[in-house]
## 1
Amino acid sequence: MSNGLRAAFLADRVGIEARHGALLRPNARSRAGTLAIVGFGLALYLAGLVTLDISPLRILGGFNRLFDIFALMWRPLPGGWAKVQLYVNALGQTLAIAFLGTLLAATLAIPVGFIAARNVVANRIAHLLARRSLDTVRSIDTLIWALIWINVVGLGPFAGALAIMSSDFGAFGKLMSEAIETADRKPVEGIVSTGGGRLAAIRFGILPQVLPVFASQMLYFFESNTRSATIIGIVGAGGIGLWLSEAIRMLEWRDAAFIIILVLITVAVIDLVSQKLRAAIVGRRG
Amino acid sequence: MSHTVLVLPEAQLAPLLRAYDAAVAAKQRQLAIGLLLAAVALALSVIGAEVHPAKFWENIGNFTSYFGRLSHLDSGDHVWTDPAEWFWGLKRWSLLLGETIMIAYVGTLTGSVFGFVGSFLCSRNLVKSAALRFAVRRTLEFCRTVPDIVFAMIFVVAFSLGALPGMLAITIHTTGALGKLFSEVVESINMKPVEGIAATGGSWFAQVRYGVIPQVLSNFASYALLRFEVNVRGAAVIGFVGAGGIGEELIVAIRKFFYSDVSAILLMIVVCVMLIDTISEKLRHRLLAMDSGR
């Protein structure tokens, strides 16, 4: 079959090229554009490799040591039952940090989200100001926030929770305002037409549409915050990260491997639970 | 224009009303249980996170005064009165920031290539072997679940200090994150072009090259750009553990209370991140427009 098509094409090749030439010839201009972009990207990549002093030799040498480390990580068991308890406790603290941080961020972000939404607050300046400040807060990393909060409440998990709150607040506010902006206008119009006030319109027209979206986003953030909360201890803001960085610094590789596996299992369990919950929340709405 | 409202007879109305009340009560009960659970979780986490509201209120002044200190030079003047003094290390910091961006760029590109390969190998519609798919999927999951800074800490030990461990950490994390996103795109493509190529006797590579890649490339590029934005932020803090870039300078400034340096470096990072976000958002919109225009 395919050979038949091929024979037919080859037999009438000149005719087909005359009739459909534009389709068969490569488009020279778009090809040149693609080549220019790819070439630029590659040149930048090579320049990066040179300036960062990355050579195959260094990579190979490092991988040698890395395999030694992996060999030492084999049989990931900490020395002694007391340490296991310590790590599990720290993991609980990590979860507490993530939960509290997410909840605080959501509570703060709801009102700001309404201000930043174009269809609720018509004032352009308020809208722009809210958006810009959310962007600024968002572009500072959780670890940096943790360092700042440590100055306020001291070392410990509370600083971690506040750091997660700060860095999520920006992202939450943005998502919230977007959800509000894309909400269906008709329920609001219905409420206004029956004489409902502005607040009633928000409460019964917008909130029921936005809340399920927001709840599922909150769960999603909780998942990702469990991951951030595991590293926040590196700078001293509580949780399992402190012990992980300690183990790596002390080259106690079996402890490090144990902690990493512990974190992986916890994250997997939380992902599973929150996936189920998300499906339930979004499903109930439909 | 008067209307007569039809009211059902009592015998028919009563069961309907009962059903309505029952439905409302069930919903309220559900809400109450949900709130109770949330309250218990909150109480537990407040204990777990060692929250001391009193200490918080006592020290909240520190938070505002910290920003106050950030905006003052050593001489006691406001930072904006003497920009040259404020940004005394502009050249050095710019170089370090450039290194940070380079780490993010090289890491993102390398990770995209690995993620690109991985995504095809774990897509249900392209690979028949369930074992291969499972293995690739789990590997990608591992790569994205372990935070990049943890990889960086381990790599700093193996590869010694510098930009290389940071770049490798970002590469691995990007591979995991993009591999998953890419495979979701690949699994949702239109299979007809692929079938067409298979029907004319094309090999697996020909099917992927001419059937799959033209459909997914613009989506892939847009995801990779988004990852680049995330990675610039990540690369800025990866230096905290000694893996290159501006992070090391920042953590030293914070730890040693060089307030005006902290604010200058933070400002540079924020401006740079915002600039990259804006440019990449424009590019992504253009890519998506190209996609829908086809």
Note: The first helix of chain A runs from residue 2 to 11.
## 2
Amino acid sequence: MALLELERVNTFIGSVQVLRDISINVDKGEIVCLVGRNGAGKTSTIKTIMGLLRPKSGTIRFKDEDITDLPPYRRARLGIGLAPDYRGIFTDLTVEENLQFPKWVIKRNRNQSGSNIEKEVHAIFPELDRLRKREGLVLSGGEGKMVATARALMLNPELLLLDEPLEGLAPIVLVRFAERIKKIREALGIAILLAESNIAHASRVADRIYVVERGEIVYGGSVEDVSRDEQLNRLVRGF
Amino acid sequence: MSGKTSRRDFVKTAAAGIVGFGVGAGVGYGASQMMAPPTGVAPTVTKTVELGKTPRGVPKEPIKIGIVSWFTGPSTMVGEACYGGARFAADEINKAGGILGRKIEVLKRDCGTPEVTVDAVRRFVLEDKVDLMGGDVGGSNCNAIVPHIEQLKVPFFFQCSTTVKEVEELDPNPLYVFRTGEQNLAEPNVAAQLIVREFPNAKRIAGINPDYVYGREAMMYTMKALNKLAPHMESVLETWPPLGATDFSSHITAVLDAKPDVVITACWGGDFVTFAKQATAYGLFQKTNVVSILGSMALNSLTKDIVPPGVWMLQRDYYFEAPPHNLYPLNKWFVETYRKRENKFPEFDVMQIFSGIFAYKQAVERVYAATGSYPENEEICRAIQNSQVVSPAGHRVITSDGQFINPLPYGKTWHDPKYPIATIDPKTLGFIMPEYVYNPKSLPPVLQYPLGTGMKYSDWIASW
Amino acid sequence: MDPETVVIIILNGMFYALSLFLITIGLNILYGFMKVLNIAHGGLYATGAFLTWALMNTAAKAGYPIYILWLCIPVGAFLVGLLALVIEPLLFKRLYRLREEYSLLATFGLMLVFDDSLRMIFGGSPLSANQLYNWMGTLTILGKSYPTYNFVIYAFAIAVALGLWIFFFKTKMGRILRGTAQDREMSACLGVNVSILYTETFFLAVFIAGLGGAIYLPATNAYSGMGFEPIVLSFAVMIIGGLGSLKGALVAASMIGLVRAFGIALMPELELAVVFLILIITLIVRPRGLFGKKFTREEK
């Protein structure tokens, strides 16, 4: 049974259709990657799953529940965590406060809270200890991505959405961060859906990929198949 | 005499159009305060019924009175007093059968900027077809609407104290414009008179006055008059809180620091209430003498915990205990009836419109009695000019240019257990005669500010 | 000018400053977190004064002891806060996503509605409730009389400033609020029900405005149109201090209060000019205000 299921989702921004009949699914504990060029519809897909964009038609199911009409905060509380492409760090708050943020929110709303999640997150990202007192404004690109990811994990989600987590990272950092993504699944057993424009990067982490082009899913399958298919490869690379 | 009989007397008196001193419900002034009869008060009734013309009958429709005043903003209390006074007069007249059988209806419209005020006046006449208008529209709106009133040919009873600048530029021969309230140029004079009379040895004068044309003029002309009457007095500090201020503490402190003998304030309405409350806490009333020019406008808000005993207060042209009730039952009836109606003591605005409406009634009835024809507005207005009206404030003389005149009361506050508010100690109640107001040194002959000659008011003071 | 007078002038300056501060702080919260410029805040301040007057007057007439009268101040403010729970969903929720001009126009309209409603209910005469002011009496400071009640206002305003500082920087909700102010989408993605949070914040801002009106009532009075003057000056304070800055509101209000108090003593002609002179200088020299943020935040 799929953890997340999108069925024939059509999304518009203003009058422009950004997603056309998107149907994808993510299973428990799976790492799935949306691959496509910039503007292909990856971020729109992530936003539609999170509820930041409302689809005009189609259904979104999470844990067998129809969440198509739920606002983002309800989806977050159901167990979807997002680290957006722009990181979304609260610059007025310290790193520690950024990380505690989801916990405060959940506590205020008396949800069940994952008691061990904090320890686990720090085990995955040991560098966080060093950054605790830092203001959100003065983080480097890699640090920012890390804090955003860690913060999404503090929600104790069952599905983690990572929008362009590897983009703009120095090669060494990139490799390390890709390892961390795998480690997240190992440690927490959660599913991860990430968006990535570089298929080589995607292949480092993903079990399965969807290729997105002009708001449509043009391919879904294993990384190896895509790598072998020169036409798909070219499509994704853009040359 | 009971209040009931005095009321009937009053309505009857006014209805009969009997004019003259010593007639009517009673005259409340002591001999020393008796106002000499001014010249030219004989009723003048224009005979307009030409031979061969059929006399005009009494119209069937009710008489409509339009009140133009402040019904929004910090001056709302002014509008409420004008409107309350007009409804009071209308109800009394209606109870006694109306004006020649015509009942009276009272309407109201908000004034504002000169444009808004002109619009209110025009719509009253053109849309509501009112027969007369009245109200306090603010001193600096008067000149804007006067030409419209003259053009529309509907009498207007101003209750505002017109600014000096406007009086200087006033139409000297208006026909439809009447002024039932004292003008700005009277008040500084009264204040100066009071200071010279009560504090002849004072030297240092300070002011806390609202920062707009009225407050500025009040202070400036009081000082000009004082310089003339008592050259040893000088202004040591003039502070200007904005209109609608909630904090006077800085002004009070600065004034106290200047160690004045007398402090003049033209703050009114809510401003005076706040001022008085804070002045008490800062000990201003204990440390110096305060003369309030217009604090009396908020009469009903001047509770004893706000206004201490010993504050000198001008009362413009009417104070609810002057003339004293035991000597002048009409005033007693007026105050008691108004209190029953509104649960308030009548402010001067109430008396002003009340006497204006009765002057109108008297004129209509008089012309009708003389000619047998219902008068046109022009005839009514000519009949009001140079007449007198019996009012709760005593007899009011109406000059040829439409100004209602009566002695102006003032006095020092005390706490009378009879009343919930701070009132004027009868022992200190004094009157400044209009003659004094217009020329303090020569009495008689009456010398008035020469309206319409273009002479500056300050030049006129200098000519005393 | 003797030194004793200088002390009194400083105290007077703060008396005025803190009334501006209590209004500006609400404006700043609404602008800082919801990007709404609320002119109707003056009306809420006035409502606080009027409702508290009604409570105090009733209590005093019924002969209740003095502590009940004290209680009228927070209760009156709370009632104003309840008003927020009506106007926020009906009007303000629609304004959050619109440009500032819309909120200026809509809230100006609301201000007029408040003013007219108050006049309809309470009439046009100024209303005073002096029981507490008189009960506190007068202090003698360096040989000069000074109303004791003013110190209640000082203590109260300091408590509000401190309380808000703790709230925004030390409590969970305050920090959630600051995060949400910066990025409401991200905040929603982390589980924040922004709509409810905004209503709560709105309540807080309005409650403080109501408290301002209520606490100043005994020292001044409630009258028709009383909300207009402070709202104009509070906008000046807000701009001088920096939009959305609590520290800025306190510093700018104090500055204006003190300069004005000394101005009245030394150059009484320039009373109002002084405030706007500071405003103009600020706009020329430091357009974002004393403690305003640079316009370079990490935002989408």
Note: Residues 124 and 298 of chain B are 28 Å apart (CA to CA).
